[in-house]
Write a structure and sequence with these properties.
The protein is α/β, with parallel strands linked by helices. The protein is built from nine helices and 17 strands. It is 27% helix and 28% strand. GO terms for molecular function: oxidoreductase activity.
């Protein structure tokens, strides 16, 4: 099968489209024929060696965790899916090696759920990591109807999903963003606040009695900002600050969860959340996709089609 690989830590130029053996399919796994694979910043950060101290990486690596496709085969003692089923998932395994930038990927069933019916394969491939991150941040914070929540970096791929989920739960959402994204946040149901100097004061003007919870999808001072405006004892959750726990907040990583993926699919199928795909490239252009992702200027999800 064809797959994108890299054999050493490096830049996007290290990526190659090569022929590799088809993956074995073990108990509790299915073989997925990949229709689309989502591109996330963690993909190229892993390839650059930034997370080697956290995750086991075994070269050569096929990158990618997000996938949407169809079941090609099932492993022994695997009755969760049948051949031909449409699935999507966050295929993060015990170590980094056999990912989703390929024609086929062996995926543990715990990492998959039925694909949202109303989404294209490209849209579905853009949902798992960003969706799980935002969904689990919102739920870990205990966001509920009637609360006021601040989402720092609310217009990005993760933040915009967090806005939609929190609004769906009945919360009042204040979101920080650049001025060009304020109309977009309003369309999602959030009250936008400009980034930069004075942001804490601008939030306090909107919520003079304080806020109930803060979600940091930015890093670089986001935890401290939210701690200064969240009421004492209120949760501050960060997906971007690795030192959040030492600061009295909580740092979370997205966890593969069939239940959470199923909940996200239901939200997508009812139109409660939307997945904005900004760029669709063929698998052979994975390096260009990484370069685009690294600029931080891409609007919407970047997806590779296989």
């Amino acid at each position: 099968m064809k797959a994108i690989t890299y054999s050493t830590y490096g830049t996007p130029t290290a990526l190659e489209l090569v022929e590799v053996p088809e993956p074995k399919v073990g108990p509790g796994e299915v073989l997925v024929r990949v229709k689309a694979a989502g591109v996330n910043p963690v993909d190229w950060k892993l390839a650059a060696g930034f997370l080697g101290h956290v995750l086991e990486v075994r070269h050569p690596v096929i990158p990618g965790w997000d996938v949407a496709g169809t079941v090609e085969a099932v492993g022994p003692d695997t009755y969760d899916y049948a051949v031909g089923d449409e699935v999507y998932g966050y295929v993060r395994k015990e170590w980094v090696q056999l990912g989703t930038y390929a024609e086929l990927v062996a995926a543990p069933v715990r990492t998959l759920a039925p694909k949202p019916r109303e989404l294209t394969f490209e849209e579905a491939a853009g949902l798992p990591l960003a969706g799980l991150t935002s969904y689990q941040a919102v739920t870990r914070a205990g966001v509920a109807a009637g609360q006021t929540v601040v989402i720092h970096s609310a217009a990005g791929g993760v933040g915009s999903l967090g806005v939609q989920i929190a609004v769906h739960l009945g919360a009042r959402v204040i979101g920080t963003a650049s001025a060009r994204n304020h109309d977009y946040l309003r369309s999602l149901g959030a009250e936008p606040v400009l980034y930069g100097d004075g942001v804490a004061e601008r939030i306090r003007e909107l919520a003079p009695d304080g806020v109930d919870a803060g979600l940091d999808f930015y890093g670089e001072g986001g935890v401290e900002l939210l701690q200064s405006i969240v009421r004492p004892g209120g949760p501050v959750i960060s997906v971007a600050d690795n030192d959040a726990d030492s600061k009295g907040a909580k740092h979370i990583w997205a966890r593969a969860s069939t239940a959470d993926l199923t909940a996200l699919a239901e939200l997508a199928d009812t139109g409660t959340i939307t997945v904005k795909v900004g760029h669709v490239l063929p698998l052979s252009d994975a390096a260009a996709a990484w370069e685009l992702s690294a600029t931080g200027q891409a609007r919407g999800k970047i997806v590779l089609t296989v």
